[in-house]
Structure formats: structure tokens, C-alpha cells
Specification:
With 71 residues, this protein is an all-alpha fold. The protein has 3 helices and no strands. The protein is 51% helix and 0% strand. The two termini are 23 Å apart.
């Protein structure tokens, strides 16, 4: 399952703003997280089309800290 650019436009305002030297767009990051959730794989099991798995894992941890108070 992946979301399209049109779907992403509708939800991007509730996502954290990218900071620093980020090479991975939010849409690609979100689709990588959805891939892990859907397939139940480990972060290391992400296909290379999503980029470096460790970068995505680190970014997810940062987002989790941001979203925890909201949830």
C-alpha cells in the first residue's frame, strides 16, 4: 500500500516539517513506514527504492517523539 501525491497533499499539513539535510521527501518516507507496517518486516527489510533503511528508521523515531503527545 502506498499513498499517492494527491492523497499526501491532503495530509501533509499535520506531518512534522522536514529539517536539516533531508534527502528523502515526506511522501517517500511515509510510504516506507506504511510498507513496514503492512508487510510486518524489519526496517532492514525495506526495499532499496525507499532509500537507506537506517535513515528512515531514525526519522521514524524522531516522528514518534513528536506524535506521542498528540496521540
Amino acid at each position: 500500500m502506498e499513498i499517492t501525491a494527491e492523497q499526501f497533499e491532503k495530509i501533509k499539513s499535520v506531518l512534522p516539517v522536514q529539517r536539516g539535510n533531508v534527502n528523502l521527501p515526506n511522501l517517500q518516507f511515509l510510504n516506507a513506514v506504511l510498507y513496514v507496517a503492512e508487510h510486518g518486516c524489519k526496517w532492514r527489510g525495506l526495499p532499496s527504492r525507499f532509500g537507506n533503511w537506517h535513515s528512515i528508521y531514525t526519522r521514524m523515531n524522531r516522528c514518534e517523539r513528536y506524535l506521542k503527545p498528540i496521540l
